[in-house]
């Protein structure tokens, strides 16, 4: 029996029927055969070359899959299907072309389920960590209505906007957190290594030390002796708060309410939650999902338990016949402008368009609020660091100034 020809993995780049640049990987016996297969799939090959073999193991499915990976996958799949590539072949092209080994395994696993006769929705529901209820519900609506390509495009757009919004909110939190961490490290170094040197110098001073200097020396002695307990307590408090938030609804509600009431930062978080509420509901409305069913996914997408509880109450109210705008007004969480926009949408039958405008508006508001927060925090943090570090330096040099004056 003749031995089967050996296949290699090839990396390719090309353009689809719409002229959009696409790339991926494909196994084949030669680059000419790979080009021929790509042409049959509606892709014009521009570059095909053999993929070099890795020197070490790739790590397989252990590679972390991020929301950005799912977003890119959704956009690629929608683009391939819009170009006329069949669903299974689109999975093959996107999966083989992904740089993340874990994502490759995920996509090819979904492909195998679809090839076995399962619907795309059923295949995705087997991967709940990567594809949440909102994603699966929208794909199911697209499959039932025969508009899967359009739904995938909407999903990709929704996820891109949501991730961009999360990134902006994280950037607003990261800067002050990073500065506080650096300040703690600098003060710790001064307390442990620098101040004890001055303390030895002042031990033979022969006079009373200034109050600030004595306080800093006493604080340094305490810190050197108990630094492990101080950092242990701080770490325990942070870890305990995070765990309590995960496990206790009451703690989560307290923290989320406190964040919303925080000066400046609370405004950013509130506008972010409203933007996610409007964007998610707009996307599900546009996909034809019934309002009551959509509200569960919308609640989970808000990112704040206060808005989650309010949205779930709204769902219950709507199921008994209450209008969406009336239910939103009763929560007291939504500004009058948002409620009025939704009311106009309900009356005109264009609620998804109105929700889209609300989402656009509040996403821009988050942008502006993050800029304002950053410009406000920068001088405040610099002043704080100046007082803390400058106070320590002055406290250590006061006795030296006193000695100079005495001489």
């Amino acid at each position: 029996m003749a031995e089967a020809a050996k296949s290699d993995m090839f990396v390719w780049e090309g353009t689809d029927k719409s002229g959009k640049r696409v790339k991926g990987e494909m196994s084949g016996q030669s680059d000419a055969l790979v080009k021929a297969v790509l042409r049959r799939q509606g892709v014009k090959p521009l570059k095909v070359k053999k993929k070099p073999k890795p020197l070490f193991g790739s790590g397989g499915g252990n590679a972390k899959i991020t929301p950005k990976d799912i977003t890119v996958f959704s956009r690629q799949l929608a683009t391939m299907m819009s170009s006329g590539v069949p669903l299974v072949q689109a999975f093959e092209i996107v999966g083989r072309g992904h740089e993340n080994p874990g994502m490759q395994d995920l996509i090819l696993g979904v492909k195998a389920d679809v090839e076995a006769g399962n619907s795309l929705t059923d295949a995705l529901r087997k991967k709940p960590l990567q594809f949440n209820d909102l994603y699966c519900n929208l794909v199911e609506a697209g499959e039932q209505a025969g508009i899967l390509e359009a739904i995938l495009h909407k999903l990709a757009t929704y996820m891109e906007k949501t991730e961009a919004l999360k990134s902006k909110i994280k950037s607003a939190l990261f800067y002050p957190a990073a500065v506080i961490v650096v300040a703690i490290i600098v003060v710790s170094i001064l307390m442990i290594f620098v101040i004890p040197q001055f303390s030895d110098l002042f031990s033979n001073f022969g006079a009373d030390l200034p109050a600030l200097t004595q306080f800093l020396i006493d604080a340094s002695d305490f810190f050197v002796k108990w630094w492990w307990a101080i950092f242990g307590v701080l770490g325990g408090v942070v870890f305990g708060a995070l765990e309590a938030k995960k496990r206790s609804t009451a703690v989560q509600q307290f923290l989320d309410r406190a964040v919303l009431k925080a000066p400046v930062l609370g405004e950013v978080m509130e506008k972010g939650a409203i933007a996610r509420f409007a964007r998610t509901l707009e996307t599900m409305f546009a996909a034809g999902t019934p309002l009551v069913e959509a509200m569960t996914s919308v609640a989970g997408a808000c990112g704040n338990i206060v808005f989650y509880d309010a949205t779930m109450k709204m769902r219950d109210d709507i199921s008994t016949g209450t209008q969406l705008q009336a239910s939103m007004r009763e929560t007291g969480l939504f500004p009058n402008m948002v409620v009025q926009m939704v009311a106009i949408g309900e009356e005109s039958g264009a609620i998804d368009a109105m929700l889209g405008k609300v989402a656009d508006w509040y996403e821009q508001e988050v942008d502006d609020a993050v800029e304002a927060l950053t410009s406000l925090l920068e001088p405040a943090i610099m002043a704080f660091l100046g007082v803390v570090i400058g106070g320590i330096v002055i406290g250590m040099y006061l006795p030296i100034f006193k000695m100079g004056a005495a001489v």
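The chain has 15 helices and three strands. The first strand starts at residue 8 and ends at 15.
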